[in-house]
């Protein structure tokens, strides 16, 4: 029996008996084929990096069905007789890129590129769907939805959405964002072809159609029964087996994304349910619709939308379908089944949306169980039963059509992402038969709030039955509801979840209390759909140094989109390659007694456990080595923090090594040890602090005692706390180490600091540095996390390879990465501030505690960064006491804008507190305290630059005019006056950002055919470094003015970093490595120009570039030049106008309606690249301020360790109107061709979202005080935590906001 399928048109045939049924499609693609576009990022179906197109052929109707699936969850055996298309199957560099790849490139929609192949396949699938649908075209709305489940950490999504929309029938290219197809202001634009169905890829090859036949139903571990009877026989045989046969029923296998322990279970039998026709049918009757349990959620959605019955029932079904579209992502819904979802809810208490909405709809479940046979159960009874046995089977689900005269039906959910791909804090669905304002009867279902399963609120249903809905009745119902919807102990945000229930019930029934009712008695009050993303960009193009300044597309963007760009884990495994996985500490401070495996059995494939004992003689147990010191690779006798590396388990496959690491048990002992330090305050009390080098400690400004004495008002000892943020690069930490001759080693790693990896590996192995070679081609996102934290990964890999004398590779899984890598530094800030009655601040005193954990890393740079960003305002006088706290908590690392983002937020929090104390507008206080050039020079000393370079105050005024700030402030006020349940806020925020340049090497070599190869110390992380370097090379060599030099850009290739070829590579970070690399390359080119000039002059006339190079080779001119750029520090500053947000008081959901950014880029080296950096950094900052909760348990171990619990921004959480203007601020002599950095500073601008949210919350609290009859001004001062998540915002707006409103109305009515 064979397993036959196709990948990108190639036929694959495997002997079914030789295939492990638990093997995923991703594993097969990455480890047994040459196709590498399918990336592993989360491994749980939560990111879209591994998305492929799966095509099935139905020989009966002769139809091919195409849909996306998450290959990390799809079992290989389930694709029998199917065809798989990956991004390189759409197009590639050999056969020509697909138009999708070219759009992603042309719209500057790929940065690190790790997510782009998955995005491309998701878009392709959506285009196919629209193409096959005769009744509709591909619209802008569909374009936005196409990638709504895919994650990207680099771009900020706006250019991705525009690339997708460029295929839409209802969009003109002129209306889309900055791109290479249509230059703003150009007289004509390139016409972009629509998706052409005639030229599309053949997703299902003809040869496969001839091989479709029924599968054997029982001989192998993977069984595919063709009927319910065959299935029943299999189940009975398994149950009757005296040896006990473990078995798993499989439909889509998507549940393993949530229940990852399932992957560790080695079942005897896997029974595929998808080939059973009865389980795939959707049957419509007069009284309802019956859906087979194996029908995918996507097919259920389509079927419910197509059913044509009475209008009221159609609307109910449409509501169900719309809600189902918010379950997971499309590529999960396409394979996940309705029955599987309900079984997870019943058996494992999965917080299902499906169960809740079907419960309200009165659904019935048909099941087949061994003792009882066939049963028909109400869904409520099904959920309440004891968990189904392994041999029990859900056959179908029936949704009855309600025959009510007047029907109300609505579903609700509150989740971190409005469009799905996030579990709900609470979901609900209500069905009611009403007569005018009277409820005849109703069904009220709630779920996902911290309960075993979705429930019906019988007491409230009975209370409401027969009652006319009044505010008094609603209040009593809500009071009753409060005793029923009660989260279980241990549920996160229990008060918030509980508060959502009355809000949803109120929203559903409140319209019946209004005077005017809809004439037909059917009331539909849906939430307004989320506005689509729109944008505008004002990007000056400077041709003074052409091609520098030209918005050329990112180098290799199409290659990234097709999936051909090679990342470390894409490098083919050498022969005899082994795989490593970390064993990390789960205790903050303990003695390590032993390491062993569960049940004392060596797991399959496990070959060694590498620990500190395996560091070679003469080597050091060192995992990081920088100018600030070194840190251990492996824990020795004691652990010092959770997440610390204890050992590396090595096995023959990636799966085996991951399993072995999960089975490893570390025994600890804490007897006679000091208690761990688990807070910053505890560290201060125990004097557990790191010293800060004096030259890195920032300087105080003025006399704060004098400033405080001059103040009319003072706020004393106010406190701010800031949490952490995880990097969430799409490519996790990874390395490959290959032993080489003469005791040398080659290490391929994804690192921002190859030079430091190089020296660390040499020190650890005890070998000379010229025996180590570190190669880094590109990095799938870094954000600081691939700086220090990449070093121990590469070093551990090298130690294992050295010990075993075999190649070893590590690809850290997402959970381990989140636990070991850590993130931003948490902080506690206590401040006192003095100010006049007009709002002018006279003095600021700060005490800042920074949680560094047990090792220092690069944390010593944080204090100066905090103060540098904080000094954007004139504080009169400024003093501070900053402590680096040494704790036993989770490891911390510098993350994009380290310290700067916290500093700018601290400044804004203080300004807002001052404004609140004086009852003045925050914008007024900001403006009063902006620097003059004189005060700027006082605070920044030499870093202030020349007077003409200080653009902040003029930018403040410019953005106020260009964004109609005052007019929009008035609009927000009017909105807040006329809206009870939504409030808006608006904020204008300035930032300054000090940057430092690093010494950066470069080499430019001209080859015999005139092509040019460039090496630089900087690493391509997605920030466009290679692109800018190519442009600079083209400009600098173009100064020779040969014929053909205008085409030099196409001749230039930037190659990977090699530490034996390019020494002194330094550090890629701080936003300036692109500029430094360009400066280094310019120096090299100047040398080459000097060498070639005599040949040009002797030519006596025009000479072509190729001829010139031929002559140079003939005359033995040295055409390779290297140099080291050494810089001087200069500051740079930018301003963000900011944000209008809208807050929903019922759920606490914040929608960023509009963002306007004015950003000083100097003379941009590439405005397209810089625009991408601005938008991407801003959205990452939005995540820090509004969404991302990096939560740990009391001992510091991360609990938000997956895509299920850690939510980065998605398409539906970015600004709805995203406007960016790049300001060309002219000549800056000390900068590289007058350019300024763009990688990190824009992240600070996202503080404006938080500030605007605070304004909206302030309005909500003012309204709440009115309802409660409290005095004006009481409780007006409040702290909005970071991140300002939905629970945080709702709590500040009032968890009892609905009850307070009703009490207020009832009091008002009683007075009438």
TrEMBL record:
Localization in the cell: Cytoplasm
Residues involved in [2Fe-2S] cluster 2 binding: 112, 115, 152, 154
Major place of residence: cytoplasm
Keywords: 2Fe-2S, Abscisic acid biosynthesis, Auxin biosynthesis, Cytoplasm, FAD, Flavoprotein, Iron, Iron-sulfur, Metal-binding, Molybdenum, NAD, Oxidoreductase
GO molecular function, one term: 2 iron, 2 sulfur cluster binding
Cellular-component GO terms for this entry: cytoplasm
Iron recorded as keyword: yes
UniProt name for this protein: Indole-3-acetaldehyde oxidase
Catalytic reactions on record: indole-3-acetaldehyde + O2 + H2O = (indol-3-yl)acetate + H2O2 + H(+)
Residues the entry annotates as binding [2Fe-2S] cluster 1: 42, 47, 50, 72
Sites where the protein binds Mo-molybdopterin: 752, 783, 896, 1070
Span of domain 2Fe-2S ferredoxin-type: 1-90
Protein family (similarity comment): Belongs to the xanthine dehydrogenase family.
Gene Ontology BP annotations: abscisic acid biosynthetic process; auxin biosynthetic process
Source superkingdom: Eukaryota
SUPFAM superfamilies cross-referenced by the UniProt entry: 2Fe-2S ferredoxin-like (SSF54292), CO dehydrogenase flavoprotein C-terminal domain-like (SSF55447), CO dehydrogenase ISP C-domain like (SSF47741), CO dehydrogenase molybdoprotein N-domain-like (SSF54665), FAD-binding/transporter-associated domain-like (SSF56176), Molybdenum cofactor-binding domain (SSF56003)
Keyword Kinase: no
Domain (FAD-binding PCMH-type) ranges: 215-404
